[in-house]
Each structure stands twice: as C-alpha cells, then as structure tokens.
Design a protein that fits this description.
There is one protein chain. By secondary structure, the chain is of the alpha/beta class. It contains ten helices and seven strands. It has helices at 10-21, 25-31, 58-78, 99-108, 119-132, 169-179, 202-211, 218-226, 239-251, 259-268, and strands at 89-93, 111-116, 138-142, 155-161, 180-193, 230-237, 271-280. Helix 4 links the parallel strand 1 (89-93) and strand 2. Helix 2 crosses helix 3 (58-78) and helix 7 (202-211) runs antiparallel to helix 10 (259-268). The mean pLDDT is 94.
Length: 281
Amino acid sequence: MSTNTSVASHYQGSVADYWNKEANPVNIELGEVDGYFHHHYGIGEPDWSVVEGDPDTARERTTRELHRLETQQAVFLLDHLGAVQPDQRIMDAGCGRGGSCFMAHDRFGCQVDGISISRKQVEFANEQAKEREVEGKVAFHLKNMLGTGFESGCMQAIWNNESTMYVDLHDLFAEHSRLLARGGRYVTITGCYNDVYGLPSRAVSTINAHYICDIHPRSNYFRAMSANRLVPTEVVDMTEMTLPYWRLRAKSPLATGIEQTFIDAYTSGSFQYLLIAADRV
C-alpha cells in the first residue's frame, strides 16, 4: 500500500490507523438500514417501544431507531448550510463513510467533496458513489482537512460533523476560511467541554482516550473563528436533544461501553453538544 501523504504527524497517523481498522456495528449496521452510513450521533426523542417486545427482533428494531435519530442529526446540520445552488460546491471535512455527503447531494444537487485521512473510509465512500451513480458529482478524497490543496474560494459551504476534536482549531478555520467564498457558510456540530465547569472532567478525559481525540473548550471555537473571518450566525445547544439518543443506545445490543460516560458528561454540565453556524466575511 502506498504511503498516506494526507497524514502530517504521528498523531494523525494514529487517528487514520484507528479509522482504517474501525468496523463497529453501531456504524456499519445502522448504515445498512438505508445505505446512508453515518459517523456521528443522533438527536430527538426515540420510540422507546423498540426495546420492548420480542427479544429476537430487538436488535433490528433498535438499529432502525438509532439510525433514524442519526439521520435527524444530519438533516439538522444540512438545514443550517443556507441556500446552496446546484452549480455550487460544498465540502464535508472528516466525511467518514459519506452518508451526509449523499444526503447533501440529494438535497442541493450540487458537487459535494468529502475528505478523510482514512484510506478505508475514502475507498468505501467512493464505492458507494459508484453504486449510486453519482461519482461525477459526489467525490471522496484522501486529504487532510488542514491543507486540502483545493483552490481558494471554491466552496460555498463546508461542515465538520464531530470531527473538529482531531485538529487544531486555528489551523482548521484558517483553511476553511481560505476555501470558502465570501458569504459562504460554515457549520460544525461538535462536543466541547464547558469552560464554566473548568478543566476537562474525568468523563471528558475518558472520551478523549476512547476516540484518540482532544475535545476543545467551547471558547476556543469562537476565538478561532473570529481570528479567521468566520462570524457566528447561530449557536444551538443540542445537549438535551442528544441525551435521549445516548440513553437508547445504552440499552441497545449495539452499545459499545462508552454510552454511560457520554450521559455522565452531559448531565454533569461538563460537556456540551453544540451546533455553530458562521458566515465567511
């Protein structure tokens, strides 16, 4: 296999290796419900009846419900991208297996680029594009979100969905600002630790260790955006919106063991789940 030139440090190499090896049922089986493979969490009130009834079909019922909640989260993000036109171009920075990119193309009809430092994810997503017969409009690239190589001002919208905790925010927003056209939109959904709480809580530190990431304080997002010509237009605290998802997942056959840590982090006030939308000025 050729060298992964998108990886710029030993840390990024470890992240790429993690996602190249990842084959978690909570990601794979959910995507098999309708062919949209997500790598993010869900929002909304679950149908709790899925954990009741015949235990032989509990896994299927819960899988469909968790996938519905994750799809709702992706829709909520796309709702904040603004009025994207079919002749414009948008980008998912840290695209996973591509589910949100295909949803974006379905909605806007425009060119969508997904980038990841995981070769396995990029290959999987490009195969999906071929199967969907949209490979000319939805493309996935083995690239680093801190330096994509795409031309300046070429993107109308860019989003990060639970991927900002793997990079330095100033470096990330500098690249996004370079890529976005004037008046373009940036959106992130992210977990961040609450500055009011103080330093990262034990639960936040456990999440960092589990996913090999570095969760940022809330304040760093706004500081780094301000330094890179990104002006927030909307901030939504989604913490209460995502807690029911985690409580359902904790009861599901697809639980990975990290669920109670997320619940503890959110309910303690040390961890928040935010959407931040910003305009490039």
